[in-house]
Amino acid sequence: MLQPLALSMGDPLGIGPEILACAFARNALPGGYVVGDLEVMRRAARCVAPHEGGVELPVALIESPADALAVPPRCVPVWQPPGLPPGLAQLPLGRIEAAAGAAAAACIRSALAQVVSGAAAALVTAPIHKEALAAAGEPYPGHTELLQAECGGAPVRMMLANDELRVVLVSIHVSLRDAIAAVTQPAVLQTIRIADAALRRAGIEAPRIAVAGLNPHAGEGGLFGSEEREQIAPAVAAARAAGIDASGPHAPDTVFMHARTGAFDAVVAMYHDQGLIPVKYLGLEQGVNVTLGLPVVRTSPDHGTAFDIAGRGTADPASLIAAARMARRLADAA
Ligand SMILES: NC(=O)C1=CN([C@@H]2O[C@H](COP(=O)(O)OP(=O)(O)OC[C@H]3O[C@@H](n4cnc5c(N)ncnc54)[C@H](O)[C@@H]3O)[C@@H](O)[C@H]2O)C=CC1
Ligand SMILES: NCC(=O)COP(=O)(O)O
Predict the structure, then answer these.
(1) 304: CA distance to ligand 1 center in Å?
(2) Rounded alpha-carbon distances, angstroms, from residue 110 to 42, 52, 150, 151
(3) Distance in angstroms (rounded) separating the CA atoms of residues 279 and 269
(4) I need a labelling partner for 146 at 20 to 30 A (CA). Which of 52, 172, 217, 231 fits?
(5) Residue 144 in contact with ligand 2 by CB distance below 6 A
(6) Alpha-carbon distance 279 to 288, whole Å?
(7) Known binder of ligand: residue 312?
(8) A single GO BP annotation from the record (predicted)?
(9) Residues framing ligand 1 (Cβ under 6 A)
(10) Cβ of 10 less than 6 Å from ligand 2
(11) Residue 275 Cα, ligand 2 centroid: separation in angstroms?
C-alpha cells in the first residue's frame, strides 16, 4: 500500500518550491506531500503553471500526512509546521535570508519527525542554501549533519548515485585542507563499512567497493604523497579482513571510469569534489543524494538552490523526482 512521502520545502527563496510544484503538476510524486509554507508553495505553483500546460495548479493545506493520499491529481498537498516565520512568500527570490534558512530548517525537522513517527515512509529534502542556514544560527553546514544530530549522532556518510555510478564520501562540508586531514584509516574504514552495509540493505549481496586514492596516481608508490600507504591501504586491508569486497587505493582519475562500466558497485571517494564531479558531470538531472547510516531513509536532488534561476519556473525537477523514486525503493527494501 502506498504510504505518504515527506518532502521538505527547502529554501523558500530557491528553486525547491518550484521543482516540487512542477513535479506535482506532472503527477510524479504519488503519495508525496510538502512540509512547507502554504503561501510559498502557492507562489511556486503560480510560477510553474505557465510552463506546465497553463492551467492553475491547486495547492491544498492538509492536516495529516495520510491526507496526501486523497488529494486529486496535480494537487500540491502542504502540511505547514507551526511557527514558520511570517511573510516568506513576499521575500524576493534568489537571495540569502536568515528567515528563509530558519524556515528551511524547521521544515526539515518537522518532516523528519513525521518519518521517525511512522506517519511517512521516507524523507526527501528539497535544496537548502547553506549560508541561509548559517544566517539563521543553525550550527550544521547541511542536511546531512543536521539529520545526523537529530537522529542521535551515529556516523553517517553522503552517497551520490545515478544509473551509472555510486559514490560514497569520506568527508563532505569542510575545506580541502581539512578534507585531506580527514583521510585517516578509521574514517576510510568507517566509510567502507557504511557503504557496504547500505548496499547490502539495498539488495546487492556482496558489494564490490573501489576505494580511491587521495593523491595523483594514488601516490605513485609514495612519490606523490603518503596517505595511500599510511591510511587508505590499511583501511582497505581491514575491510577485506572483515569480509568486505573492497579494493584499492585506486588511481582517482580512472577509478570512476571503471566503476561506470560495471567493475564496481560503488566508489569510496576521499573528499566532496573528488566524488561529486564525476557524478554531476554525467548530468544534474540524474543524480540523487542519499544519507547512509541514518535510521530513516533520506534522499535529495544532487543540485542546490540555483538562486540564479529561481522564480522563472523553468528549473528541471528530474533529480527531485529521481530522489523520490529512490526514497520509495529504499523504504520498500528496509
Ligand atoms: N541538497 C541540497 O540541499 C544541496 C544544496 N546545495 C547548496 O545550494 C546552494 C547553491 O549551490 P550552487 O553551488 O550554486 O549549485 P546549484 O546546484 O544550486 O547550481 C549550480 C548550477 O546548476 C543550475 N541548476 C541547478 N539545479 C538546476 C535545476 N534543477 N534545473 C536547472 N538548472 C539547475 C543552476 O542554475 C546553476 O547554474 C549552496 O548553498 C549549496 O551548498 C548544493 C547542493 C545540494
Ligand atoms: N553537494 C551536496 C550537498 O552539499 C548537499 O548537502 P546536504 O544538505 O545533503 O548535507
Answers:
(1) 3
(2) 20, 29, 11, 13
(3) 11
(4) 231
(5) yes
(6) 9
(7) no
(8) pyridoxal phosphate biosynthetic process
(9) 15, 19, 127-131, 143, 284, 289, 300, 303-306, 308-309, 315-316
(10) no
(11) 13
Query: Over the stretch 31-53, which tens digit does the pLDDT of each residue have?
Result: 999 999 999 999 999 999 999 88
Q: Are residues 18 and 49 in contact, defined by beta-carbon separation less than 8 angstroms?
A: no
Packing angle of the helix pair 272-281, 252-260 (nearest 10 deg): 40
* β-sheet bridge partners, residue 246: 209
**Using a 6 Å cutoff on CB, does residue 171 contact ligand 2?**
no
Residue 55: count of CB within 10 angstroms of its CB: 10
Flag whether 250 is marked binding.
no
* CA separation, residue 325 to residues 208, 287, 293 (Å): 24, 12, 19
Residue 34 C-alpha cell reads as 510538502
SS3 224: coil
- The interface predicted TM-score (ipTM) is 0.99
Q: Which ligand is nearest to the CA of 279?
A: 2
Q: What's the one-letter identity of residue 227?
A: E
All domains in the chain, ordered by first residue: 5-152+296-333 (3.40.718.10), 163-277 (3.40.718.10)
The Å distance, Cα 63 to ligand 1 centre, comes to 31
In sequence order, the β-bridge partners of residue 60 are 77
Q: Note whether 325 and 318 are within 8 A (CB).
A: no
Q: Looking at residue 299, what is its pLDDT?
A: 98
Task: Write the single-letter amino acid at 104.
Answer: A
Is the pLDDT at 1 greater than 90, yes or no?
no
Q: What mean pLDDT is predicted for residues 153-172?
A: 97
Measured from the Cα of 128, ligand 2's closest atom is: 8
pLDDT band at 94 (very low <50, low <70, confident <90, very high): very high
Ligand 1 pocket test: which of 305, 309, 316 has the largest number of ligand atoms within 8 Å of its C-beta? 305
Residue type for position 334: A
User: Which residue carries 542536511 as its cell?
Assistant: 143
